[in-house]
Each structure stands twice: as C-alpha cells, then as structure tokens.
Design goal:
7-stranded mixed β-sheet
C-alpha cells in the first residue's frame, strides 16, 4: 500500500512556461531524495502560454483556479492538496525547491507556520529591486511586527511551509498579493506556532516582467496591515487627539493664556474641542471595525476582545449618551443664565464661549454615542 501523502508542494502559476518545468523537477527531486511521500501541485490561474500542459507532462498535478489573483490561486492549490504539510513557493525559479528540508524539519518539530527569511538566508545580486530590499519589505515587515506582535522578520517571503489544517482554519479571505500578509497576520493573532528559516532568493528565470507591481501591490499590503489593525489605525490616534484636546481645553477654560508674545484664547479652545470630537469619532471607528471584523470572520476571535465586547450593550450606550447630553444641557443653561444677566443683550464672547464650547462638545459626544450604540447593536446582532 502507498504511504499517505505527507507533503504537498504548491506553486501558483500564471504564464510561467520558462521556469515551471525546472521548479517541478527540483521539487520532485527533493521528495525522492528525502524519501517523503508527496505531490507537486501547480495551481494554474488562467495561463495562456501552455503552462498547464507542461506542468502535467513534468509530473505535477494541475489544479485550475478560475478566480484571478495570487491569493485565489494559492488557496485553490491548498484546498486541493492531500498533504498534511504544504510548502508554497513561486514558480519563477527564484526559490530552490530542492532545498526544503529546513521547512519540513520545523513542521515535524510542531510549528504551524514556517516562514522563509530572505534577509537571513541571502539575496543574490539582481534578485530583489533596491526599493523592495531596503524600503518596502523592511518597512512593511516592521509595521507587521509592531501592529501584531509578530516575530516574523520577512513578512513577504513567498517560500513558506505550514500545516494544511492550521492554515485552512484561519479562513483566509484575500485574493491578491496581500494573501501573504493575511496568512502571517492571522497566524499571529490566533497564536499559531510560527518560526523562520533562512532562505536564499535568486534572480528569477523569466524574460517577461514580473506580476508584482511595486507601488500598487505595496500599497495593498500596507492598506491590509492598517485595516487589520484598527487599534493602530483608529484607537491610538483617536486617544491621542482626545487627550491633547482635553489638556489644551483644561488649560484655556479658566481664561486666556500667554506664550511669550502670543495670546491663546477661545479660537484655540475651539480647535481643541475639534480635536476631542475627532478623537471620539476615531475611537468609535475602532469599535465599528473591530466588531465588524470579528462578526464577518475577517479577524479571528480572541477571548480578551470578546470579553471586552460583551461589556458593550445598547442600553449602556444609551445611558452614557443621555448622560453626556444632560451635561451639555447644564453647560448650555449656564451660558443662558449669563446671557439673561445681561438682559439678553450683547455679551462678552470670551466668557460665553467658555460655556458654549464645552456644552457643544458634550452634546456632540452624547449624540455620537447614542447613534453608535444602535449601530454597534446592529453589527453585534446574532444571526444564522
């Protein structure tokens, strides 16, 4: 009886006729040399140059994935794979499929995701454009480590191995180049065991231009990292705006302040109130994004966040919003009393605005919290 397949080597393919056969040959040679029961899968994404036919002749199993995109092709290949382990890599001969032992050893050691690290393994001359090597990859990898507390040093290495069941459980959603980032981000958020092994990157063997587009694909990766981290995108900036606005407001409410020859008064107080209101809006956006991400499956659930979200309720939000509106009303009544003391005639704006501006901020807080409570309640409604 044949042994069950342990390793599936998956290559996404879109018109890779020049290098595909070499990659398949190296992958099959690795399986044979190491005595690993395995298969080579080519996930074809609509090639028109004869790549699927060449792959089949070279001994690979071809999986046709009609939905366009790097992520779509890989996900189609992963779902079709029979191996307990999967190693994925580009079919442009930039990675050496005959040297995958470090990945298999790490998977055997119990890791769920094994990332290649090109900066540790080596980047051959001409293998990576200057801007990718010294700006794009280091910057995006640093942001990934900052946002998601990941230890991965090369977020975008195309050569990586993983346990098939662990990655399918992540329910990956993206279809383009950002699929690579989504895998690392979700693995980090959910607490999978992740490690890295040094990987050598060589110049690819194509004569045609690469599918990767520096600025548009770089922006897609950056946008993905930001959207998957509402804490850094919304909450921290919002909290900074609120604290800054409150400090400036508290400093100016008693009266005008001088800094050298400059006098700061109600105009600055108005801008400070704008910071407070904008900050609250950003914090509310954080709540919207977090709840929607978890409910829609874009973000994995975690006990800490779930416990925090369980504390939110429509009724608590309505009470808080109503309380803010009441405080705003008191401040407005104070302004009205001051106006009446002047027989509803001309008043000193330096005094009245110090009552009106806080009241306006409190009214705005109350109204935003009221409507946000209903919106969050809609997002959190349980459904089949």
């Amino acid at each position: 009886m044949e042994k069950p397949i342990l390793l599936s080597i998956v290559m996404p393919c879109l018109n890779e006729l020049e290098t595909l056969a070499v990659c398949i040959d190296k992958a099959r040679r690795f399986l044979t040399t190491q005595g690993i029961p395995g298969e080579v899968i080519v996930a074809d994404n609509g090639s028109t140059d004869g790549s699927p036919e060449l792959a089949a002749q070279a001994g690979a199993r071809v999986v046709h994935v009609p939905q366009k995109g790097y992520g779509s092709a890989l996900l189609g290949g992963i779902e079709a794979a029979n191996g307990k382990y999967i190693i994925m890599g580009d079919a442009d001969d930039s990675y050496d499929f005959s040297d995958l032992k470090a990945f298999v050893d790490a998977l055997d050691a119990g890791y769920d995701l094994v990332m290649g690290n090109r900066f540790k393994g080596g980047i051959r001359p001409g293998a990576m454009p200057f801007i990718h090597r010294y700006l794009g990859n280091p910057l995006l990898s640093w942001l990934g480590r900052l946002f998601f507390r990941s230890q991965v040093g090369d977020f975008h290495c195309g050569l990586r191995g993983f346990r098939r069941d662990a990655i399918l459980a992540l329910d990956l959603q993206t279809t383009g180049m950002e699929f690579a980032s989504e895998m690392v981000v979700k693995a980090s958020l959910i607490g999978l065991k992740v490690t890295e092994v040094p990987t050598i990157l060589s110049p690819n063997g194509r004569t045609r231009p690469p599918h990767l587009r520096t600025w548009s694909d770089g922006w897609r990766h950056l946008r993905f990292l930001l959207l998957y981290s509402p804490l850094w995108l919304f909450f921290y900036p919002g909290l900074f705006l609120i604290i800054t606005g409150l400090l400036v407001s508290a400093w100016l409410l008693p009266g005008p302040r001088k800094i050298g020859s400059i006098t700061l008064d109600i105009n600055t107080l108005m801008y400070a109130s704008f910071l407070i209101i904008s900050g609250l809006q950003a914090v509310l956006f954080f709540l919207y994004a977090k709840v929607f991400g978890i409910v829609s499956g874009l973000m994995p659930k975690d006990d800490k966040t779930q416990k925090w979200l369980n504390m939110l309720s429509l009724e608590k939000g309505l009470l808080l919003g109503a309380g803010m509106i009441a405080l705003g009303l008191f401040s407005s009544i104070g302004a009205l009393i001051y106006w009446s003391s002047r027989h509803f005639g001309p008043i000193d704006p330096m005094i009245s605005m110090r009552l009106v501006i806080p009241g306006t901020v409190l009214f705005s807080f109350g109204i935003q919290i009221l409507f946000s409570s209903f919106f969050l309640s809609i997002l959190m409604t349980k459904r089949k």
